[in-house]
Specification:
With about 525 residues, the chain is α/β, with parallel strands linked by helices. About 40% of the residues lie in helices and about 15% in strands. It is globular, with a radius of gyration of 26 Å.
């Protein structure tokens, strides 16, 4: 069984007589390290604890003033290449990003809530090879933030972990690094001086490498930088031996560490770019030509209806369980952690992780629906190119069946604990802390976020009652569960109708028309 995935057939049914899903269908039970598609752009994600100088390291890589990389607390900063410098804040609840100056002294826009991400575009040569991403401190991520980081790191391809000389790896950081190592994500470490500089060398210490000196000869002086880096590396490998080949770079203001680090990252990008480009052929089998239907497809339409209902039901069950877990974490943080003022940021991050999970589950289930129904009509197994040819007409057919509720919309939790919907073009553009490539799936992504009114309400000096915050969070999560349940049901009904129409047309004409 793949880590982080649960066979949908093992989930209990809440409807008598429901057809079980085939064992080859897997619904993601939780978010893990995402496997990137070949077209996914390369990026290096900066990770590390507070006080390690992560933003300064990224600024030195780009040869910029660190003030240019400033971003609101909790927001991700994505630095891309562009001929013209620009900066934009992507805020849930707005259809358009908020632009403001890209210079060092530019003031940010007055926003009702912090953005999920800030995108900075600069004409820096290094950014031609990969984008640079700065993330919140690892100590502030929480469970949901760790899920978002694993997803982004998998799609980006590389992580730059920055730690100071006087810091140690926490259990959360070691767990994250172990998952990245198992997934094959490139991890590079940068060690910066601590508050008191580099660690002093104990008296009587000798070099760890054989210097070739004869017995009795005076020992060569021990480099405190090398001792510090080796101590960090030994502590890491004791818990995560899979990172034995990871490269380490001490970064002091007086040395050329950033130049070595820059060359290492460019070399990784060159190799990873070639690997991704060769992972998929330029033309998939079955992308062109006639695809005849089988003589007797059987009761494929009835099977499609049963499978769509079963997938919808199981995804609703998964999301209900996850929302219950979120409620427990939120209550714990209200009482023992972030309190009322930190509730909006905490819950918004949980809603983003929930959105990613719901999107992944819907995408996986829809791929299974297309595979099984098309296999009955055209014969199985189907070439990969035929699947791609089916996605477009099914996606186009969604507009004919979605009715008055658009599928491309964002759900916003209001200050009263309700859920409002923002529809139209650009409604979901601000959903992701780390955006990837343009989606090729049938359905648009699921997007749940907190409105700006939640920040204004719970950060008000008069609203600091933990009991009221717990009651509000419970009411808001219940409304999210109800709205997501309706959304998932509506999505699978629309997909069923659209796919049924495409395959019926193919049967009427004796071949795939797409």
């Amino acid at each position: 069984m793949k880590p982080g995935r649960l066979p949908a057939v093992d989930m209990p049914d809440d409807m008598a007589g429901a057809a079980p899903l085939p064992r080859r269908w897997w619904l993601p039970a939780e978010l893990g390290v995402t496997v990137p598609r070949p077209e996914e752009p390369l990026a290096v994600i900066g990770v590390g604890p507070a006080g390690a100088g992560r933003s300064e390291v990224l600024a030195r890589l780009l040869q910029l003033d660190p003030a240019m990389l400033a971003a609101p607390a909790g927001s991700w900063l994505v630095v891309r290449h562009s001929r013209v410098p620009t900066r934009a804040a992507y805020v849930p609840g707005y259809r358009q990003p908020h632009s403001y100056g890209a210079d060092r002294l530019a003031a940010g826009p007055a926003l009702a809530r912090p953005p999920r991400r800030v995108e900075l575009s600069l004409p820096e040569p290094l950014l031609r090879h990969f984008s640079l991403v700065d993330t919140p401190d690892t100590g502030a991520l929480g469970v949901a933030g760790g899920q978002l980081l694993r997803d982004g790191a998998g799609r980006a391809g590389a992580v730059l972990f920055v730690i100071a000389a006087d810091q140690v790896f926490t259990a959360v950081e070691l767990h994250l690094l172990a998952e990245l190592a198992r997934a094959g994500v490139e991890v590079v470490f940068a060690v910066t001086p601590g508050a008191g500089g580099w660690a002093p060398v104990p008296e009587g210490a000798v070099p760890t490498e054989d210097t070739g000196a004869s017995v009795g000869a005076a020992s060569a002086p021990v480099d405190p930088v090398a001792v510090t880096v080796e101590a960090h590396r030994a502590a890491l490998l004791a818990a995560v031996p899979g990172l034995a080949d990871a490269r380490w770079f001490p970064l002091d203001a007086a040395d050329d560490g950033p130049a070595d680090l820059r060359r290492a990252l460019v070399g990784w990008a060159a190799g990873e770019g070639l690997r991704r480009a060769s992972a998929e052929p330029p033309e998939l089998p079955g992308s062109y030509g006639r695809v005849p239907v089988v003589a007797d497809p059987g009761d494929w339409s009835e099977q499609l209806d049963q499978r769509a209902r079963s997938c919808s039901r199981r995804i609703r069950q998964h999301l209900a369980l996850e929302l219950a877990n979120i409620h427990l974490r939120v209550v714990q943080e209200i009482v023992f952690g972030v309190g009322c003022a930190g509730l909006p940021q905490l819950l918004d991050r949980e809603m983003e992780a929930l959105s990613l999970l719901a999107t992944a589950q819907c995408d996986e289930a829809v791929r299974g629906l297309v595979e099984e129904a098309a296999g009955r009509v055209f014969g199985a197994p189907l070439p990969a190119g035929v699947h791609r040819r089916l996605y477009d007409p099914v996606r186009w057919g969604l507009a004919d069946h979605q009715g008055e509720h658009e599928l491309d919309r964002a759900l916003l939790v209001t200050s009263t604990g309700g859920v409002a919907a923002l529809t139209g073009a650009g409604a979901t553009d601000a959903r992701a802390s780390y955006p990837g490539m343009e989606r090729v799936e049938v359905l648009p992504p699921v997007a749940v976020a907190l409105s700006g009114g939640c920040w204004q309400h719970w950060r008000s000096p008069g609203n600091h009652d933990p009991n009221a915050a717990r009651a509000w969070a419970q009411r808001a999560l219940r409304e999210v569960e109800l709205e997501l349940s309706r959304e998932v049901s509506r999505r699978f009904e629309v997909v069923r109708l659209s796919l049924d129409g495409v395959l019926s047309d193919a049967l009427d004409h004796g071949m795939l028309l797409a």
